[in-house]
Amino acid sequence: MAEIVDADDIPHNLENGLQQPSVVANHLSIPYSQNPHSATPQRSITRDAKGRAILQFHISPASKMSPHAELTSTSSENPAPAVQRAFDGFLTENINENHLPSVENRSHLRYTPEEELHDLICVGFGPASLAIGVALHDALDGTDPSLLDVPGLQTRPPKVAFLEKQSQFAWHAGMLLPGAKMQITFMKDMATMRNPRSEFTFLNYLHQKDRLVEFANLNTFLPARVEYEDYMKWCASWFKDVVSYDQEVVQVMPEKSANGEIATFTVVSRNNRTGRTESRRTKHVVIASGGRPNIPKPFPSNHPKVIHSSKFSYMSKQILPDYQAPYKVAVVGNGQSAAEIFDFLHANYPNSQTRMLIKGGSLRPSDDSPFVNEIFNPSRVDSTFNRDPKLRSTTLLEDKGTNYGVVRLGLLEHIYETLYMQRIRYGSSPEAEATQWPHRIMPYRRVIDVADSPVIKNGIRLTIQDQSPLYFSDVPGGREQRDVMDVDAVFVATGYFRDLHETLLKDARHLMPGGDLADAKWTVQRDYKIRFAEKRVADDAGVWLQGCCETTHGLSDTLLSILASRGGEMVRSIFEQPTKWDSADVLGGFEERN
Fold first, then answer.
1. Range 295-366+404-496 has CATH code 3.50.50.60
2. For 58-97, how does the pLDDT look when each residue is reduced to its tens digit (9 = 90+)?
3. Over the range 359-394, which residues count as b (16 or more CB within 10 Å of their CB) and which as e?
4. N or C of the chain: less Cβ packing under 10 Å?
5. For 122-291+500-588, CATH number?
6. How far, in Å, CA of 436 to CA of 580, rounded?
7. Angle value at C-alpha 276, between 275 and 282, nearest 5 degrees
8. Burial of 79 from C-beta contacts in 10 A (0-12 / 13-18 / 19+)
9. pLDDT tens digits, residue range 388-410?
């Protein structure tokens, strides 16, 4: 077994895949194949004159070369170890250290031309896909013992691409509000729970940014949300060679091989910069496209003054540009995002009137106590998936109070204190609350109609069903009421839909078990791989779903809590079978249309 050295001993740069580092010490080799019937390719590390690491593939003369890799065998005439040509198409001859960039963070994945058949294409490059990229890096790096023996990574680095519709990496950019904190410990980052030795831990990020000591002085496990997004951007920057931004995937189509099996998939995307359509072929697809904003009826989906919470931080500045103006604003929702928006408006628009409309009787605290937090343990996914479906639905409903429609206790207490100060200033009577309080939480309210306001220019009129008299009436026989509210803007914090995969895979529905039945939905196995009809898809091909499997895998499916562990699971599942490559498949499959 090779001795593993500290990550800081290995540089992380190296342009265009010409030299690919791995954390293996003293020129020792790690076996790259366990096939007893063939020569054993090996990977090892050597260093150049400046100590930069070079990932090498050693192969004996008897072994068979794959059609896509150029290898030079070790022999008496050629004693140097064989080095795989850079698989982005550039040759390494006549390249010296002066051509290499300065040391910077770079992953072990390298760019693959669009026309080549890929091993893996990830639809979306948010936290879920990032965790897969990090796990792949650690697998190639040799620092994660759990991923050293993945069969599909034993002969060559994988050909991977991430397609992201945004123009840069961003995580909940619309809710990066001043003072907002993370709701989970930083230890549940992209790597720590799977591989604490990874270079992608939050602590290593702090070390690289020269803030480790100062962060320790904060005495907290909960970093600011803006810092955690910067951490994820830092992680994402390692993968710039293999991420294509401004690529909105619109279709994933199966392709038959000569024997009739589906052996590859074509991923069709629209370049949002040029408007052109591009297609790439791959053996494996991961759909990790995140959620799309849920703007419920009766709210219009495209009204300029009806803004989903996912766009709050930048859209609020556009539609409420004057912080001193007496705006009238409604916030719809009763969870963490709605509470943060309500608190932000109170703090930053002192002359505004803000109404928070909630469907229940009060804001409720999230439960993040130690026993309850075990819901988000990686091991809990197994027990959740293996439960009887009816029992699983019941327990998911019981557990929703940890994540849905709840607010962290510290924020709840802060909001209550600010409302209490209004009691001191304006009085505590119902009349004072209704007519003088600038900021109110209004329980048991439901918006039933939305129209243009006749009294506020470019404003909105909300018709509200008020059920509070049924609960708070001082006399028997309270009845529902209807009120109208005219506002300058409405911010809806009403969650997300997570069903884009159904649209992307519409041309693969005939591969569903039982055929394309009306209203049928895609289902997944424990490893997140889609269930296709038996013997219709090759063993070394498939589609995996991320972030849309809550009903089978539990509440952690859409959260950050298990990303590190799940990223490793995904790498093992996707590359468990060595990919079968035909020479005809090495090139082709890329086209561009106006």
1. yes
2. 544 433 333 333 333 333 333 333 333 333 333 333 433 3
3. eeeebbebebeeeeeebbbbebbeebbebeeeebee
4. C
5. 3.50.50.60
6. 72
7. 130
8. exposed
9. 999 999 999 999 888 899 999 99
